[in-house]
Structure formats: structure tokens, C-alpha cells
Fold each of these.
Amino acid sequence: MDYQHGQVTFYDPGTDFPAISVTGRVCELGCDHCRGHYLGGMKAASSPKQLEVLALELSQKGAKGFLLSGGCDASGRIPLLPYVDAIRSIKSSTDLKVNLHTGLLDGQEARALVRGGADCYSMDMVQDEQVIREVLHLDHGKQVYEETLKALFSAGAGHLVPHICIGLAGSSDGERSCIDLVSKYPIDALVLLGFRPTPGTPWSARAAPSTERILAVLRYAVEELGRPVLIGCMRERGDWRLEQACLKAGAAGIACPSRRTVEWARSVGYRIELRKQCCALHR
């Protein structure tokens, strides 16, 4: 790459684009790598009315938008459908951007959810059936993820961005299978995440994926997709060497980059854009 002609977007959601959970800290799946830990860092909206009140407060404070997510039930679904009318109201009465983390969906659920008019639909993509059964504790085959992808496209989801977590499986075969699958669809971008050891989980002592593995998956995605590939916020933070290597390998953007990476990118001539929002909204 000729860095003098490179373009990169750095994302820093912070308080301008908070994450909101519709289930608080509750998640029925209890995945081995998470156990609901990250729900604890989200704002809680236990009812549609509470979400509307929270969104109004965010708008009045000048926020850009929010990620709406939550814990899953035993089938891998996030109870977002009761919030559809609230999302419509928020979109009509404020300038907030809304990124929905959908969970698994069937066609009817996808149609109902898309009627809310969110700006972005983020979904997890997993194709390793051992991970699905033994790590995520789902009684599903890998086809449910493609079914969710199809359902969202059929429902008219306008900006769809799958997320792949590197390091949940013993090898990168499942991650490459995810990339092969989403390459068949007109996704808007792909977000790559990295497993991070989390205290209080069964995987607290498991190693994070190596730099070599992350870069190999990134390069494969860049080559196969021909669409923006982004490095998301769920990963081990502060590794500026990895972040710079990801930019050299073709990443279009990085969420929550280290200051050293931003300074380096500027020094070597990248055209830099800074955004206070989720990287999934990349355009």
C-alpha cells in the first residue's frame, strides 16, 4: 500500500455513542468467553419507555446515537421486538443514529425489527459448530446464521454489517468459512473482533488470538470481500503494533485505536477521519 494515499477512519464511540442493553446484565446463554460480563458496562433500558427517555437525554446532550443490544435467551435471540415502536419514535424525533445488534432472527422477526428504521444492523457470524454448541451453548446448526443474514436482507435492512470474533475456535477455519459465506451477500462492511480473556469466565486463562492469526484473517477478508473491513472495539486494546499492521494489511478503520496508532497514521500520510460512533456505521 502507498500510505501517502491511504484513507482510514478511527472510531471512538465513548459517551457520544453508548451501548444500551434491553436486558440489563441478564443473558441466558452464559457463553464461556463472556458470561454477560460486557453487559455490565452498558446503560440499561428495561422498557421501551425507558429507552425513549434515555434517547431524549442523549440527544439533548449532543450524543450521536447508540448501540441497542442485550443478553440472549436460550435460543440466541435478543428481545428487541417490543422496542420497535420506540426506535421509530426516536428516529422521527431526534437525529440519533441507531445500531441494532440483532441476535438470531427468523423472517417474521426480521421484518418486524426492520420496521423500526434503524440505521445499521449488526449481527454475529459463526460457522464453527463446535463453538456454537460448546462455547455459545446454542442447540443450533451453523445454518441459523445464514438464515438470519437472509432474513435481514429480505426484510430490507439497509445497512448490514456482520461481526466475526477471531479466536473462539482452535483454528481460523471457521472464521474463513464466515468470510466465504458473507462474501455471497451485499453486506456493507465486515467487523473483525478478537477474543479477549475475561475475568470470571471459564475462558479467563485462555490466550487471545495471535497477531499472525488476526492478520491472516484480515488479509483473507480484504481479498475476498472487496468491501470495508474494520477492526472492532471488542478486542485486546492498546496493541499499537497490531493496529498499525492491520492498517498496512488493508483495514478501512479501527475502533478505539491507541493514540500512538493515530499519530503514526498521520505521520505517514494517511487521510484520517475521526468519528464518535460505532464502526459498523462505516460508509
Amino acid sequence: MRLDSRAIAAGVRLVAHEVVGSTNTEALNLARKGERGPLWVVAARQSAGRGRRGRRWVSEPGNLYASLLLTAPPLPRVWPQLSLVAALALHDAIGECTKRMEAALVIKWPNDILLGRAKLAGILIEGETGDAPAVAIGVGVNCASHPRDTDYPATDLAAAGATVTPSTLFAHLSVKMMERLAQWAAGEGFSSVRADWIARAAGLGQDIRVRVADRELSGRFETLDADGNMTLRLPDGRAVAVTAGDTLYAELFSVRQDAG
């Protein structure tokens, strides 16, 4: 693994492992020991990888597993926006590595990257407050393989005909993440991040289902609000702000018209 030279110039560092339990867990452990960010923790394989809501993230060799540690994070109230920032950075990096597939890449709210209608990559944001606040932005990309038995259809770059190594993709991501974080400016630039995210959104303006806690909501995905929450228009006409959930529209949304 290697950092892009521009990331190095910006003071970003890298710690690479063959195997860790979870790159997010390792990054936050380093922060507790006094390590400072921005620092990437990458691994060839994870033995205890996880996704949102504690789901197991299958971590076979040949895919990208990386976490960016930030130890001077903004106020916790804007940490959820990092999901959208990181999704844009990952979309940028994958698109740069796979030019012919770029138009088919979309973002499933809040931060999954889809290739066509299948999940290609995911992001997990975890943070700790207290005397030494820290945030880990965890990224997993299916470069060479993908899990078969999943609730949502999955794919990988190789299956789609793109040969992209984790190292190559990571180099691109290391600089794209810094660019998107600079755009965001700890929340001050979120309006432009929001606009860029909406331009890449899957299912925008269409009827979708969202699993929240122990129930599902159905409605039209209208937009993102000023805080990055999904605005869902329910069948009775009410608009609700969804702060967290799993969007379920594998068979419902259409790839953007400009994706051909």
C-alpha cells in the first residue's frame, strides 16, 4: 500500500498490516495510545471486520480495507456528515480508477457505493468523545471478490471487468479523501458536499423503502436536508427526516439516465 504523494505532502501517514481484527478498531486503539491523525490504517485482511449496525463485513484478501483516523475532529454533532463526505471521496477514487464504469457508480444513502444495482463498497464511521476525541472513517471496497449471501445484492470490480488492485485504489482514495475533507471544512462547506452527493444519489425522486430500527418506511426519496438526513415523502403526504437506516431499493430505482 502507498499514499499518494499529495497526501504525504499534506501530512497524512500510513500504517499497513497483513491482518487486523478491524481497521477501525485498530485506528481508535492507536488514538487512545496517543497516536495523532490524519493516519490511515490498512490491512490485507480483517479477521473481525464489521459494517453498520454491527453486521459482519466479510474480509477476503484482494479487497481494500482501510480506515482514516482523525484526532482533531469537528464537533460530534456534524460527525454524521462524514458518511456523505467519505462516500463522495470513495466515489471519486473508484471512478478515477475505472473511467468506463464511472457513470454507473451511484451512492446509496447514506454511504454505500453501488455499481449499477449492486453494492460495491461500504463505509463505517465510528468516533469517541472525551479528553481525546477521535473519528475513524472505515472503508471497504470489493476489488477482487464479494460475498454471495447478502441481504442486498453485491458485486466487485473484477466481476464487472475492471482490474484494480487495492494498492492502486488506496493511493487514489488517500488524496480524494483529503480533497473532500477540505471541501467539507468541518461542516462549513457542507452545502456544496450536499449538492455533490445529491448529483450522485441512487433512487432520488423515486419510491423506496427504508428500514429504520424495527420497522420499515415507504415513500418517495425527495432530497437531503441541510443536515444530510434523507427527506422521505410518505404516502399520506407527510415529509419525514430519516437520520439513519438501510435503504431497500435494489429493484426499484433506475440508474441515472446519463449512466449509459
Amino acid sequence: MRLHARLLALAVAGLVLGSYAAAGRADDKEDVAKAKDLVVKYASARENGDAAAAKKALDDLKKLDLEAVMHVFKPLEKGKGGVGFMPGAAAPNGIEAKIIGTKKELSKAQLDKEGKAWLRAAYIAEAVAQVTLPKCPVQKKMGDKDPKEWKQWAEEMKKSSDDLVKAIKAKDGKAATASIKSLNKACSDCHGPFRE
């Protein structure tokens, strides 16, 4: 009888934990979808010069978990949260992959073809940088994780994004490429110690 009671208790505990885990995954998926929606709103507001709408989207974005927000850099896939980079028109599809893959100076033809997508990507990176800044997972240096470096990399990400906006608007391929490389460096430097 005691064995039966213990097995029943374990089964109930497993169901409870399983339901919490499933709820967590559902919340994560919901937050990823919210993040995607909010970065698109932010980017659209920035493109249209609507500072109030951009601030509102950014304030709402800051309420979400950073991991959910980072999903916006992933390739555009149903249910995955990625925003994409000119889906169907440019490869690779994801913003992060496009940033990492940019090695040569953007040509005039590339700027003409992809300029609008790069501008959108720069505004999205700008939003993510502002969300990232206050969300360092450590309060003091712990091994390789240093909040001072986190702040430095988040600020560099924001500056590189702002510089990319200016370069794309000026149709300056050299400056745009330098900004993309600087953005990539800030991200990869931070991912080294902080990405799980």
C-alpha cells in the first residue's frame, strides 16, 4: 500500500512539474512572439520618425526576458521568433547570419537592393542594444563575466547600429560595412563569456 502511495505521489509530482515546464515553454514562445512584434513596431516607428511610438515599443520590449528578445535576430521561421532579413529576397535570411556573413564592402548595387532591409536590421539591433544594456546577468565580475564589459559591448552595439543607420541613409557602403563589422564584434565579444 505504501509503495502504491509513493508511486502515485511521484506520478502526480511528475505531472505537476511537467505542466510547469510546458507552461514555461508556452510563456517563452509567447514572449518571443511579443518581442518580434515589438521590434517590428519599434523599427517602423523609427523609420517613420514617430519617437513616441518607438519609445512605447521599447518600454514594452524592456519588460520581456532578454533571451526572448534575442530571438529576433534568428532566421524568419514560423513559431521561431526571427524577424528575417528580406525573406525570400536575400540570403542568408536571418539578421544575425547576415551580419556575420558580411565580409566585403557593400556595393552600390547591394545598397540599392538591400538598403531598406539593412535599415530595418539596424533599427532592430538598436532596440535590442537598449534592452540588453540593463539586463546583465551578473552584478559583479564572476570569472569571465564582467558587468563593465557587458555595458561596454551593449553601448558599442547601440553606437554601431546608429552608425549603420546613418551610413545606409547616406548610401555609404564603406561606412555601412565598417558599422556592420563593429556590430558583429560587439555581439560576438559579449557572446563569448555570456552566451549559454
